[in-house]
Every structure is written in structure tokens, then in C-alpha cells.
Amino acid sequence: MKTAFIGDIHGCVNELRYVSRRAIQEADHVVFLGDYVDRGPDSRSVLEELVQFQTAFPRRTTFLRGNHDVAFLGVLDNDDGLETFLKMGGAKTVRSYLDPPYLNAISRLRSIVPRSHRHFLESLETIYTETEVIAVHDCKDAHGDNRFVIAGHTSQSNLVPLITDKTALIDTGCGTLRGGRLTCLVWPTQEWWQSSE
Description:
The protein is of the alpha/beta class. It has a single domain (3-194), classed as Purple Acid Phosphatase, chain A, domain 2 (4-Layer Sandwich), CATH 3.60.21.10. The chain contains six helices and ten strands; from the N terminus they run βαβαβααααβββββββ. It has helices at residues 13-26, 43-56, 67-77, 82-97, 105-112, 115-123; strands at 3-6, 29-32, 61-63, 128-129, 133-136, 148-151, 162-163, 167-169, 183-187, 191-194. The strands form two sheets. It has a five-stranded mixed β-sheet with strand order 3-2-1-9-10, with helices on one face. Helix 1 (13-26) links the parallel strand 1 (3-6) and strand 2. The chain is globular, with a radius of gyration of 16 Å.
């Protein structure tokens, strides 16, 4: 069985479309490592695309939660963490849902975010495991596990995944670094490929 792992997306819908469509053709299962929103240009479209992907391939997909996704859901539910969310690039997420002016932005955001997007964010998992591999958003969440760890979260400034004999860190700056790309790594071959910048 081949499993494809897709790194941090951060609001980059075109990169998501390219990488996810190739992944579902080449692998038996696709695991998304989280951080779907913030910083990039179109978090709303990314979530819509992921909701549709989840609906189309419910048994062939797993979606993990990243810290940006948790922060966004927290803002939708209450005011705790609003300042942190905005500092994390959340203003781009707000702008992807709302047209200016941005008066009463958070209350407007809460009323306009589709229920399907909220449900998707609420359904995200923390971990994905197979016999020889474990996937998490942040590699420190797999501390003490002897399986091969695949994670996002820690962006690689050279825009290529960092692969060792024990880990693969595949956040290659999509939406966060100049020229950043979205990376997909296939297990067990450890072949990887990316969107263009």
C-alpha cells in the first residue's frame, strides 16, 4: 500500500489542487498534515477544496490538525487567542472570507464561515499511524515513538524536505516562505515531489 503525505498548505489553493489530485492518483491513501489556513492568499478556498476532497474520498483520506487550524477554530468559538491568531497570519484568513470594510470582522466571520468548514475543522485528527510510520503535524508530538516520523510544521528554508533515517519534515514553505512549495512524500518509497513555486 502507498500512502501520500501532504505538507502545510497555508491558504495556497492552486498548489493544493495540483498536489492532491496527483496524490490521489498515485497512492492508496492520502494524509494531510495540517496548517490549512493563514498566511497564504485563500484559506477559504483551501477549506472548501478539502471538504470536497474529504467527501469524494472518505475512506482514502486522513486530515490532521495543525496549530493554525486549532487557532482559527478557537477564534470561531470564542475570543480567546484572537491576538495570537492574528499574529500567526490569521488576518489573511479573515480577508479570504470577508470583503472590506473589516468593521466587526470577527463577529461577521463567525456568521459567514460555512458550517461545513467548521465541521471539517472540528473533525481533524491528531495522529495517523501505520505499522512502520507515524504522521503528526509537529514532530515533537511523536516523541518516543520508534516508527518513521513524517511531519510538517517546521518549514525548511531551502524549500526541500528534510529526510533522515528516522524522520521526514515536509513543510517546504507553501504560503509562508518566498518561493515556497507544497510537498508530497510517498511512503514507503520516500519519493517526493512538489508544486511549482
